[in-house]
Amino acid sequence: MVAGRLLLAGGFAAAASRYWLGVFPLVGRELRHWRERACQIPDPTLRRLALFTQSSERGNLEGAAAFAVLVPRAHRERVVRALVAFQATYDYVDALAEQPAADPVANGRQLHLALRTALEPDGKHADYYEHSAASRDDGYVRNMIDTCRFAFGALPSHTSVLEPALRSAGRMIVYQSLNHGVGAHPRCALAEWAAALTPADTGLRWWEIAAGAASSLTVLALIAAAAQPVLSVGEAAATERAYFPWIGALHVLLDSLIDRKHDHRTGQHCLTDHYASAEEAAARLAVIAARALRGAALLPRGAQHETILTAMTSFYLSTPATLEPAALPVTRSVLDTMGTLSAPTMAVLKARRSAARLLTLGTRA
């Protein structure tokens, strides 16, 4: 047991070193670029939304880039560029889809078509703003899409992951189009679609499979896998199976857990509301976390996938919202399931959040 803990600690230290020394500086450069680009958007509403999304979802962007620890150094810069651009596109179009629209379902679907185009080196741009009230973004969305697909298309094994990546993007598009609908009918359509998508013998409820479909992690893991000099179609398929539905479901359900109050306040759909109680949610997420860990461990470079998975769960569970009565049982059960490795990742992320709060207070003062 001691040897196992030392091995886990060593793996975490190595991954953390690669991230902070080899990846994080590249992330900072990409984030500065996209902030400068957002400042050029002529429409004031879209400009504010783009800048706010980049700021509020910075953790998403930094987390997306964590997959670059899996790749050879020679391709790391290109992978970080693709990862950040894809996640930034997703965050922005999702925020746009939450704005009022005459047809929310059509608007959500049209905006999220950007996710598929971002993975198609030769794909044609759609009119992403066709159903939106505003559209003057000076090519901002198209720039993010092109940055992702050109970087992705230059990776040595991108053709091996293209099919599962497009399949994953397709699931995200359908989920987001149905999830942003208003009233009971779109929710029923979402439930029917997710139930039909559920793999046999998984025992997942429809909102859990929907969470897996909504997650960007499958695409991010496949982009990182594309940097391997040789990658078989079978390895790409194994990555998709590990991330969808299990890892992706855990990702989005934890996001739903910490956003619950915000979703209630803004009238957004909250997936964790479908559980009958906090105790049921805790039991179900523990099961999903266990399956997610098992799937990550079986992948090539499995220890690194486990570290990324644990860091992702710690990112969500280190937020103050997870200590509230409705969330605390889930926090405890998932951390117990994640095991020894969750301790250092929780410590690092809590310290970073505290430092960020102190910096914000200092800036305001």
Walk me through this protein's architecture.
By secondary structure, the protein is mainly α. The chain has one domain (10-364): Farnesyl Diphosphate Synthase. Helix content is 74%, strand content 0%. The chain has helices spanning 2-39, 44-56, 58-65, 73-97, 104-117, 140-153, 158-179, 184-197, 206-214, 217-225, 233-258, 260-266, 278-297, 302-317, 328-338, 342-364. α2 (44-56) crosses α4 (73-97), α5 runs antiparallel to α7 and α13 packs antiparallel against α14 (302-317). The protein is globular, with a radius of gyration of 19 Å. The N and C termini lie far apart (49 Å).
Note the main attributes of this structure.
Farnesyl Diphosphate Synthase, mainly alpha, 365 residues, 74% helix, 0% strand, 16 helices, single chain
How is this fold's topology laid out?
Blueprint: H1 2-39, H2 44-56, H3 58-65, H4 73-97, H5 104-117, H6 140-153, H7 158-179, H8 184-197, H9 206-214, H10 217-225, H11 233-258, H12 260-266, H13 278-297, H14 302-317, H15 328-338, H16 342-364
Helix pairs in contact: 1-2, 1-4, 2-4, 3-4, 4-5, 4-6, 5-7, 7-10, 7-11, 8-9, 9-11, 10-11, 11-13, 11-14, 13-14, 13-15, 14-15, 14-16
Largest sheet: none
What share of residues is helical? Answer: over 70%
What general outline do the C-alpha atoms trace? Answer: globular
What percent of residues are in strands?
A: under 5%
CATH fold name = Farnesyl Diphosphate Synthase
Helix segment count?
16
- Name the structural class: mainly alpha
**What assembly state would you assign to the polypeptide chains in this entry?**
single chain
N-to-C span: 49 Å
Broad CATH class: Mainly Alpha
Poorly predicted ranges (pLDDT <50, ≥5 residues)?
A: none
CATH architecture: Orthogonal Bundle
